[in-house]
Design a protein that fits this description.
Radius of gyration: 22 Å
Strand content: 25-35%
Mean pLDDT: 94
Number of strands: 14
Bound molecules: adenosine-5'-triphosphate
Order of helices and strands: EEEHEEHEHHHEHEHEEHEHEEEH
Number of helices: 10
CATH architecture of the largest domain: 3-Layer(aba) Sandwich
Low-confidence stretches: none
Strand order of the largest sheet: 6-7-8-3-9-10
Length: about 290
């Protein structure tokens, strides 16, 4: 199974004194779905553009199956980068645009493309330039799911999509992945949207990797316990609580710890903490250390 390894990568823009990315060491394994998170300006798009060889590293290596991707067209062809740049011919009708792309990739999935055009209600007689922000994203999403690449990098794929189309996209992504497992790296600010889809989390802050772990590991021993306040309090007694939300007599407490050994009152519900909340705690605790 293919993998991408990033070793001691630094990126600094010419004329700048500061690195955008600092000593990045990461492995993206085959057939996994990664969430790439971080605040605005953290360096997510820069990292993706380097992997796809749109940009050159200042130092360090990006290897696909042990070989440098940079300037190696056979390897670059295994990576597809969907981003916010509009690089398609603006005045061509979409039907021609789709044809051009499918001609570039020998095993492009034309039947999936047809299905997705219908599901997203895309009018292929329109030009790319005339599309709304959301429909521009949809066209890019369709192409990303149909190209026969082993590594698909999606940079804020749902930008401008309404709720229905976001749902269609994630449903189709899962269907496509199940049928044809490959690696997806999805950069998004809306962690709730992907927390059921991704296997791995990479969190970048100020150009450095702060979290690089599986979702299962991150979510193990992290709970949200809710119910009548007095029952919850007695159940979680002695556990370090990260946050308590209260609504009248009802409360929810969040903690990163094993479940208490005390018997759980029937009135109390236990669930895994939401990934978004958890990542915020992990980042905050790192800052305190
Ligand atoms: N061509 C450029 N010229 C100047 N600064 C740049 C350039 N490209 C990136 N940067 C800077 O590098 C940093 C990282 O940007 P990048 O777009 O990679 O972040 P991001 O995590 O994708 O952010 P966002 O979530 O806002 O899209 C930012 O401070 C950005 O301003």
């Amino acid at each position: 199974m293919s993998k991408i390894e990033i070793k001691h990568l630094n990126k600094r823009l010419i004329g700048s004194k500061e690195n955008i990315l600092n000593d990045i060491n990461l492995t993206f394994d085959g057939e996994k779905i990664y969430g790439l998170f971080g605040q605005n300006g953290a360096g997510k798009s820069t990292l993706m553009s380097l992997i796809a060889d749109y940009n050159k590293t200042t130092s360090g290596e990006i290897l696909l199956d042990g070989q440098e991707i940079h300037n190696n067209q056979a390897l670059i062809n295994k990576v597809y980068y969907m981003n916010q740049m509009d690089m398609f011919p603006k005045h061509e009708k979409l039907e021609k645009l789709f044809k051009m792309i499918s001609n570039i990739y020998p095993d492009y999935d034309l039947s999936l493309q047809k299905e997705l055009i219908n599901k997203f209600n895309v009018d292929i007689k329109k030009t790319f330039n005339s599309l709304s922000t959301g429909y521009k994203s949809i066209v890019k999403i369709i192409i990303s799911l149909c190209v026969p690449c082993e590594f698909i990098l999606l940079d804020e794929p749902t930008l401008g999509l309404d709720a229905r189309n976001r749902e269609v996209f994630y449903r189709e992504l899962i269907a496509s992945y199940s049928k044809n497992p490959r690696t997806f790296i999805i950069s998004t600010h809306i962690i709730e949207e992907v927390d059921q889809i991704i296997n791995e989390v990479v969190f970048i802050k100020d150009g450095r990797v702060k979290i690089n772990n599986s979702v299962d590991d991150i979510r193990s021993q992290s709970y949200s316990v809710s119910g009548p306040a007095e029952d919850v309090d007695s159940y979680v007694q002695g556990i370090h609580i990260l946050e308590k939300d209260r609504l009248g007599r009802y409360e929810t407490v969040h903690f990163m710890h094993e479940l208490p050994e005390n018997p759980r009152p029937e009135s109390v519900d236990v669930e895994k903490m939401k990934l978004q909340k958890l990542l915020v705690y992990i980042m905050n605790s790192e800052e305190v250390e």
